[in-house]
Each structure stands twice: as C-alpha cells, then as structure tokens.
Amino acid sequence: MPRLSSWQLPATAPETLDADALVARLATVPRLREHHLWETLRILPSLAEAREDIGFRRAFRMLMERDDLDGACRALIAAACPARRLDRLQALDGVWIARVVLQEDAPRRAVAVHGDRLAAVMAALVALDRATPSKH
After folding, report:
1. What is the distance in angstroms between the CA of the first residue and the CA of the last residue of the chain?
2. How far is CA 42 from the centre of its chain?
C-alpha cells in the first residue's frame, strides 16, 4: 500500500468506524488527541466537501503540525455542511458542556459533556452526524 502524507486521506477508513463509534470512542478518552481530529475529518459525512478541498486539507494539516488542536476543532466546525456553530461551551463542576447547532430551516443540536474541553466540542460535532440524532 502506498504511503500517504498527513493531508491525503484514504478513501475508506482502515476499520469500519462511523459517527456512533467515534462518539463512543471520544467519550472514553481522557483527552482529545490529534488522531481523533483526523478520524473526525475522515468519517463525518458533513465534512465530505472539506475532505475534497485541497486548500482546507493544507490549512488543517498546518494547524495539526503546529499542534493547534483548538484551531483544528474550530476549522472542522466551520467546514461542516450544512453549516454548524458552537453554540455553548461551559465548564461546570469539573466537566465541559459543549453544544453544537446545525443551522438550517429546522435547526438541530447536539450536546456533549466531557472532562476535556476539545473532546466535548468534537463529541457534539460528531453527534450531529449520527444516523439517529439524540435530543438534548
């Protein structure tokens, strides 16, 4: 198999991972890591256009090379289609509560709670791509 640079994404994930599995994985990690962001970019249907956009991939790779996970999280939210926004991010009793809102005619939202700020944000983003979104 040819070796891919960090900005070239494989057409399919090496394992069958979907949004439900990624949300479950994010819930168990103590802290968000770089590979979780690459997985998010690789599997979310809402990021399909970003995966195909060479300019986005280069900018995302640069954020990752600088270890700017916060900037990378913001870039993923901004690149999602239809548009999403981080509506709430609050620390309460030692955990972070993140709410990401899908901005369309019938808005939806997803809420995630995690001990790590960025993991909460990414879990909420991923939850919006789940096959059967949960109401919070």
Report:
1. 43
2. 9
Per residue in 90-129, is it b (16+ CB within 10 Å) or e — as a string?
Answer: eeeeeebbbbbbbeeeeeebbbbebebbbbbbbbbbbbbb
CA angle 37, 114, 25 (to 5 degrees): 50
Edge-to-edge, what's the strand order for the sheet holding 108-114?
A: 84-92, 95-102, 108-114
Match 């949004």 to its residue by tokens. Answer: 19
pLDDT digits (tens, 9 = 90+) for 116-134: 999 999 999 999 987 544 4
Can you name the residues that pair with 95 across neighbouring β-strands?
92
Query: Which ranges constitute the DSSP H helices of the chain?
Result: 19-28, 34-43, 48-52, 54-65, 69-79, 117-127
pLDDT tens string 63-78: 999 999 999 999 999 9
Question: Please, which residues bridge with residue 101 across strands?
Answer: 85, 109
CA distance 121 to 125: 6
